[in-house]
Amino acid sequence: NNLDVLYRQVIMDHYKNPRNRGVLEEDTVTINMNNPTCGDRIQLSFKVEEGKVSDVKFEGEGCSISMASASMMTQAVKGKPIEEALHMSQIFSDMMQGKEYDDSIELEDIEALQGVSKFPARIKCATLAWKAMEKGLRDKDQSDSN
Ligand code: FES
Ligand code: FES
Predict the structure, then answer these.
(1) pLDDT tens profile 101-110
(2) Is the ipTM reported for this complex over the cut 0.85?
(3) Within 13 Å of residue 52, how many CA atoms lie on the same side as its CB?
(4) The pTM is what?
(5) Domain ranges across the chain
(6) Ligand 2: distance of its center to the CA of 132 in Å?
(7) Ligand 2: centre distance to CA 127 (Å)
(8) CATH number for the domain whose boundaries are 2-141
(9) Where exactly are the transmembrane stretches of this chain (predicted)?
(10) Which atom of ligand 2 is the closest one to the Cα of 37?
């Protein structure tokens, strides 16, 4: 249907024109993670200032779903408070499990990936960047409180 076509276009746009691609150089948290099923990898670097994800970039190689999802994730969390970024990660996880998710906040392009939940083999592709972001933010939290 039309929604599928629109969603496919959004995914391809993020794949071909990734947002926030690259590596941040200074004062950043860097996370490397791979998808064990295919070996594809992602590197995430972000900067946290005053409790916010003030900047974030990603690098890596992977399928269109994984790269589009990484692009969407960086777009969604950039400038957001840590709590909100983690909340978005929860929303995305619910979406991937086919559960009802909180759509009361602005999800930007993320909803284009909803359909992935019907393809279990692709869910790991779509969640890779989100898992990396979550791990990075939680690790950072720990090191700050030490
Ligand atoms: Fe093969 Fe994602 S792991 S399609
Ligand atoms: Fe490897 Fe999708 S096939 S991340």
Answers:
(1) 999 998 889 9
(2) no
(3) 7
(4) 0.93
(5) 2-141
(6) 14
(7) 10
(8) 3.90.1010.10
(9) none
(10) 1
